[in-house]
Amino acid sequence: MSVQCNSYEKTIIVKKKILFVCVENSNRSQMSQAFAKIHGGNEVEVFSAGSKPSGIINPKAIAAMKELDYDLSKHNSKSLEEVKAHAPFDAVVTMGCGDVCPWMPAKKFVDWQIPDPRNMNEEDFREVRDLIEEKVKELLLQIKQSL
């Protein structure tokens, strides 16, 4: 009697986890999270939080991302406490919170010096949005190369 076995190759994809942090979690970190989802696709699991979350997403950020066909109104402003269950992260990116950003377990820490666009006019807000997109693309490339 002969037994024939079919072998199946299993590919396990481990998503890289990224956390974006700013003070209010209403502008920069939210747009960063959106761009990481857009450009990182299924290769990343992305979170955002604030050291002192405002509880709302800035309508200017929603409008700026809507111009790129992304609905930021579905996001929620969250505290670091709310995302710490997802730690450790492959990368934690802080933006403008300085010493107010508490430590989170991560393999890589990055601090982006990006101005808070909260009170900017539309044109300047778009420039910050576009800067964030470029920085997110660079980060995703670095993470991909470290695999």
Structure notes:
With 147 residues, the chain is an alpha/beta fold. The protein has one domain: Response regulator (Rossmann fold). Helices cover 33% and strands 19% of the residues. α1 packs across α4 and α2 packs across α4. The radius of gyration is 18 Å and the shape is globular. The relative contact order is 0.21.
Topology:
Layout: E1 16-22, H1 28-40, E2 44-50, H2 59-66, H3 80-83, E3 89-95, E4 106-112, H4 122-145
Parallel strand pairs: 1-2, 1-3, 3-4
Helix pairs in contact: 1-4, 2-4
Largest sheet: 4 strands, parallel
CATH level 1 name: Alpha Beta
Note the overall shape: globular
Unreliable residue runs? none
Report the average pLDDT across residues.
89
Helix content: 25-40%
CATH superfamily: Response regulator
Strand coverage percent:
15-25%
Instruction: Enter the CATH topology name.
Output: Rossmann fold
Q: Helix count?
A: 4
Q: Write down the secondary-structure element order.
A: EHEHHEEH
Number of domains: 1
Q: Would you tell me the structural class of the helices and strands?
A: alpha/beta
Q: How many DSSP E strands?
A: 4
Spatial order of the strands in the main sheet?
A: 2-1-3-4
Q: What Rg, in angstroms, do the CA atoms define?
A: 18 Å
Distance N to C terminus: 45 Å
